[in-house]
Amino acid sequence: MMIDLALLPLYLTTVVALLLIPGPDMLLIASSSLSYGKKVGVYASFGNATSGLILTVLAAMGVSALVAMNPLALELLRILGGAYLLKMGWDCMRSSAADAPEIEQQNNLAKQLYRRAVMSNLLNPKALIFFVLFLPQFVSTQLAASSGEQMLALGLLLNVMGLSFNLLLVALVGSLGKPLLKNEKFRTYQNKFMGLIFIALAIWLLASQVQAVA
Fold first, then answer.
1. What distance in Å separates the CA atoms of residue 150 and residue 6, rounded to the nearest whole number?
2. Per the confidence metrics, is the pTM higher than 0.70?
3. What is the DSSP string of 26-90?
4. Is 88 within 8 Å of 198 (Cβ atoms)?
5. What are the Cα distances from residue 13, in Å, to 4, 6, 29, 31?
6. How far apart, in whole angstroms, are the C-alpha atoms of residue 53 and residue 74?
7. In whole angstroms, what is the distance from residue 87 CA to residue 123 CA?
8. What are 87-131's pLDDT values in tens digits?
9. Would you tell me which of 94, 132, 135, 206 could form a disulfide with 68, CB atoms 3.0–4.6 Å apart?
10. What is the pLDDT of residues 147-186, one digit of tens each?
11. CB 120, CB 85: distance < 8 Å
12. Eight-state DSSP code of residue 145
């Protein structure tokens, strides 16, 4: 057994509560679904899940804890993450209306959003600290499994639940945004809209204070 069944109900309740709190990941996935359709939203969701899996493995190995205890490393991550989001926002803002993707030509854009979702989460020091602080709370001394093995199992469960929630969000928002994708006026500004989203996320990240784990 990799997860203490006595702690599982509390863990599941906490994860559901966290998923329902609006955050930068939810904003990115919802806005990409609204602007470019369900397929792009699905790829963004899998990008978010991929970064979550990477952070889970790093947390289980103890690597993320070492980074989270280093103020300089966290500050560097924050600056790099903000700069990356600003660049994505600038690239979207400077694109012309002619660059708006056709509905039938979403493959390249979907792959781009996948990569952007992965990188924006990996370069967010708050996401790293979350895994360092959250998962150990549900590690049990009653199990034969090591703390690393338990954190890996807990992180995998968290990512499966997060991916399922995000895919439901994509289905809902993508359906609501379908008429917009056929609207020529909206398509003229859809890249600008995503640019504003990325810039807002960059400002949020750069303005936030990140403290090292004691």
1. 14
2. yes
3. HHHHHHHHHHH-HHHHHHHHHHHHHHHHHHHHHHHHTHHHHHHT-HHHHHHHHHHHHHHHHHHHH
4. yes
5. 15, 13, 23, 26
6. 20
7. 14
8. 988 888 887 655 555 555 567 788 889 998 999 889 888 888 888
9. 132
10. 889 999 999 999 999 999 999 999 988 887 777 766 767 7
11. yes
12. S
* Angstrom distance (rounded) from CA 129 to CA 134: 8
User: Do residues 27 and 197 touch, judged by C-beta distance below 8 A?
Assistant: yes
Q: Which two tokens stand for residue 10?
A: 């509390």
Q: For residues 197-210, give the mean pLDDT.
A: 85
Listed in sequence order, the residues at least 6 apart from 161 whose beta carbon sits closer than 8 Å to its beta carbon are 12, 15, 16, 19
The encoded tokens of residue 58 equal 């790093």
Report the C-alpha gap between 10 and 1 in whole angstroms. 17
Terminal CA-CA length for the chain? 30
Query: In whole angstroms, how far apart are CA 212 and each of 67, 131, 209?
Result: 8, 13, 10
